[in-house]
Amino acid sequence: MGRRKRRKKTPVRHALKDDSPLQTNVQDGIRAMQSADRVYLAENIRGHFGDNLDLDAALQQQHQHENRWDTERIRRRLDQNGVEFVGTTVLAKHLPGAEHPGSGPTKR
Questions:
Q1: What is the pLDDT of residues 33-69, one digit of tens each?
Q2: How many CB atoms lie within 10 A of CB 92?
């Protein structure tokens, strides 16, 4: 009998409870992002993501008839949870931790 391969505990998977329904929407690297949306990540940082969450797919399961991308409401929720809205492009300076190649000094 075959054994199920255990997925490596990447950052998002590690942050979620093992039995979270969101686990099924986590993909390695940036694969959970639609191809058209990957342009919002600077090319030099795309390889720095261990995994990511397809939030739209996750929200659609429970809120399929709601406007899931009401930007004002989203910004408010992000602010309330200590998440910074960085604009239209995520750059190396927006990533936590050590500086990344080509990022230059981080302004705080």
A1: 999 999 999 999 999 999 999 988 888 877 777 776 7
A2: 16
Whole-angstrom Cα distance, residue 17 to residue 35? 27
Q: Are 85 and 94 in contact (CB under 8 A)?
A: no
pTM for this structure? 0.67
Q: Which residue has the tokens 């939030």?
A: 55
The two structure tokens encoding residue 101: 């190649």
Angstrom CA distances, 14 to 4, 7, 51, 57, 68, stand at 18, 10, 10, 19, 25
- Residues 94, 84 contacting (CB under 8 angstroms): yes
